[in-house]
Amino acid sequence: MTAATATAREARPLPMARLRPGRIVTWTVLFIGGVLMVTPLLFMFSTSLKDAGQIYDLRLIPKEPTLANYFEVLGDGRFLRWFLNSSLVAIAVTLSNVFFDSLVGYTLAKFRFRGRQFIFLAILSTLMIPTEMLVIPWYLMSANFGWLDTYWGIMFPGMMTAFGTFLMKQFFETVPDDFLEAARIDGLNEFAIWWRVAMPLVTPALSALAIFTFLGNWTAFFWPLIVTTSSELYTLPIGLTSFAVEQAIRWEMIMTGAALATIPTLIVFLLLQRYIVRGVMLAGLKG
Amino acid sequence: MATITLDKLVKSYGKARVIHGIDLEVRDGEFVVFVGPSGCGKSTTLRMIAGLEEVSGGEIRIGGNVVNELDPKSRNIAMVFQNYAIYPHMTVRQNIAFGLYTTKLDKQEKNRRVEDAGRILGLTPYLDRRPAALSGGQRQRVAIGRAMVREPAAFLFDEPLSNLDAQLRAQMRIEIKALHHRLGTTIAYVTHDQVEAMTMADRIVVMRDGHILQSGPPMEIYDDPVDVFTARFIGTPSMNILPGREADGRAVADGDGRLLFGIRPQDLLVRDGAAAADALELTGTVTAVEPLGPETLVHFDVAGQQVIATAPARAVPEVGSRVSAQAARSEIHRFDRETERSLGRRR
């Protein structure tokens, strides 16, 4: 070690010296918030490793941990079915949102036509209507079209969202027109310009939209509960409640199912975490 | 290659007319530079030629064919934009090849053209890099490469060097000019930088408020500007303009009279001693000096008006001192004070 680095190290303030009161308060608040968020998850995993006799024993590490619940849940064909249902619904709705929201957002952002502003405001105005108010019209519509208790019935209300359209429009407005005009001169048609040039330029926004849509649909409960009646069409959140109704609240099963249900969201998060953070920031800035 | 003809070209946005029926012919293989201040209509004119703006009146012909109603892609032109418009998600090779996206050439021919463009533009080592890993000048070359591979009838450049620093700009000016010599393709180039216009153009088109003020070879516009605006816009530093009159065939810049005298700073020389009988002599107090190396620009105040003259490199006058500068009669441009139109020079 040279004399210079030694001096620099000595000159650096000790960790304790950097602990200003404001920083201590911040860390304490963040720590408490972190504990509050993580504790239910830990209890979920802990309960999933307990047998029925231990579930009211609130210690975090089970006395006799067991994987029997996992074997039972995974051995129950219904769980796998619900898992696939949820996957199908979440993936289809996500792809649909990414496609249609960005297509409409792009059109509203990059084309000048009569009524453009009116259409945009009309789409935006639907953001003001709470889901609870829409459920009855959705239900009546589903009943009239024969969509009750079908995959399409579960998916159709979320296939395109006002928020997604708004988010994408805001992002497409940041794409310089020169990119699109250059492609136009190079001979691309308008669809190809959108797909090959504009879409790759808004990848962070698309990722954010995809993540939020996937998570929202993976955990959706209210509408799937209303529109489905047969258990083979249940999505995971609805299916898990049947453990409570049919089998006198088997908490260990519910928690095991819930623990398994977090796997896709964990995968999505681990794969796309940098986009999630960036997407949340961007959505905050632009949305 | 092709001739581009603008015939009484008009552009209006609603009731506001921004291009007022301009006529121009860009000859086959010619390098024409549109120059003028912001808002003069030069970019709008270029965008109409490209097909990115609708034509409100008149005709655009490329290679003799009227193209008013044709899509940009059907006009067989290529355009280079100010902010390069190269796609960040593609490599240099993909960006250049993108210009051939819709062509029916076979893959081998496409590759050959991309490789050729890369070689000509010095981009071969960077073909597999993303634009983010390139300098501004290299990015602009990629944009030019994308235009080149299409082998268009004409290139359109919309202020392509504006985002580059001074040194790169100078280098790219030379490169684009060399490229023009090599390819011989018709070029319409828009800039607000008169140095670019002077150094690159076969012909300069000076625009203002949607009108063409003057069109001609750079030195013709420099030597014989048609009005005060063109005289001041072309040449740096700007031409000195002084109100005055003529007495006994001599220019007298005393603020009276119906003339405006224009003297380029390079023609107004700081010197001691008696002036020639027909020369214009201006005396004033030095307010600033700008030593440029080969020469020094001397700013001085003549009866409340700032004038710029040139002094030899080593003869830098003190700020606050009195200086005299003289311009030969043949270097004095005369303009009508009311219309600001040129009345020529007395040779």
What are the defining features of this structure?
heterodimer, A: 287 residues, mainly alpha, MetI-like fold, 2 domains, 14 helices, disordered N terminus, B: 347 residues, alpha+beta, Rossmann fold, OB fold (Dihydrolipoamide Acetyltransferase, E2P), six-stranded mixed beta sheet, five-stranded antiparallel beta sheet, 8 helices, 20 strands, 23% helix, globular, MetI-like (chain A), membrane (chain A), MetI-like_sf (chain A)
Report, as a whole number of angstroms, the end-to-end distance of chain B. 41 Å
Secondary-structure element pattern of chain A, one letter each: HHHHHHHHHHHHHH
CATH class of the largest domain in chain B: Alpha Beta
The chain-level structural class of chain B is: alpha+beta
Number of helices of chain B: 8
What sort of overall outline of chain B do the alpha carbons produce when their principal axes are compared?
A: globular
Counted up, domains of chain B total 2
CATH-level-2 architecture of the largest domain in chain A: Orthogonal Bundle
Biggest sheet architecture of chain A? none
Shape of chain A: globular
Taking pLDDT < 50 over at least 5 consecutive residues as the criterion, the unreliable ranges of chain A are 1-9
Largest sheet of chain B: 6 strands, mixed
> If interface size is counted as residues with C-beta under 8 Å from the partner's C-beta, which chains form the largest one?
A-B, 15 and 24 residues
Specify Rg of chain A, calculated over alpha carbons.
25 Å
| CATH architectural grouping of the largest domain in chain B | 3-Layer(aba) Sandwich
Could you name the ranges of chain B where pLDDT drops below 50 across 5 or more consecutive residues?
Answer: none
* Mean pLDDT figure of chain B: 91
Q: Total strand count of chain B, please?
A: 20
Structural class of chain A: mainly alpha
Count the E strands of chain A: 0
Please explain how this structure is put together.
- Chain B: It holds the Pfam family TOBE_2.
- Chain B: Keywords: ATP-binding, Nucleotide-binding, Transport.
- Chain B: Residues 4-234 form the ABC transporter domain.
- Chain B: InterPro entries: AAA+_ATPase, ABC_transporter-like_ATP-bd, ABC_transporter-like_CS, ABC_transpr_MalK-like, ABC_transpr_MalK/UgpC-like, Mo/tungstate-bd_C_term_dom, NA-bd_OB-fold, P-loop_NTPase.
- Chain B: One of its GO terms (biological process) is carbohydrate transport.
- The complex is a heterodimer of chains A (287) and B (347).
- Chain A is mostly helical and 287 residues long.
- Chain A folds into two domains: 15-66; 76-286, Orthogonal Bundle (MetI-like fold).
- Chain A has helices at residues 3-11, 21-48, 68-75, 77-110, 116-125, 131-145, 151-155, 162-172, 177-185, 190-201, 203-218, 222-227, 236-246, 251-286.
- In chain A, α4 runs antiparallel to α13, α5 crosses α8 (162-172) and α13 (236-246) runs antiparallel to α14 (251-286).
- The radius of gyration of chain A is 25 Å and the shape is globular.
- Chain A starts with a helix and ends with a helix.
- Chain B has 347 residues and is of the alpha+beta class.
- Chain B has two domains: 4-232, P-loop containing nucleotide triphosphate hydrolases (Rossmann fold); 240-345, OB fold (Dihydrolipoamide Acetyltransferase, E2P).
- Chain B has helices spanning 42-50, 92-98, 107-120, 136-148, 166-183, 194-200, 218-223, 228-233, and strands at 4-13, 16-26, 31-35, 57-62, 65-66, 77-80, 154-158, 186-191, 203-208, 211-216, 240-247, 250-252, 259-263, 269-270, 280-291, 295-302, 305-312, 322-327, 333-336, 342-345.
- In chain B, α2 packs parallel to α4 (136-148).
- The mean pLDDT of chain B is 91.
- In chain B, the strands form four sheets. Chain B has a six-stranded mixed sheet with strand order 6-7-8-3-9-10, with helices on both faces. In chain B, strands 12-11-13-19-20 form a five-stranded antiparallel sheet. A five-stranded antiparallel sheet of chain B has the order 14-18-15-16-17, with no helix packed on it.
- In chain B, β16 and β17 (305-312) form a beta hairpin.
- Chains A and B meet through α9 and α10 of A and β6 of B.
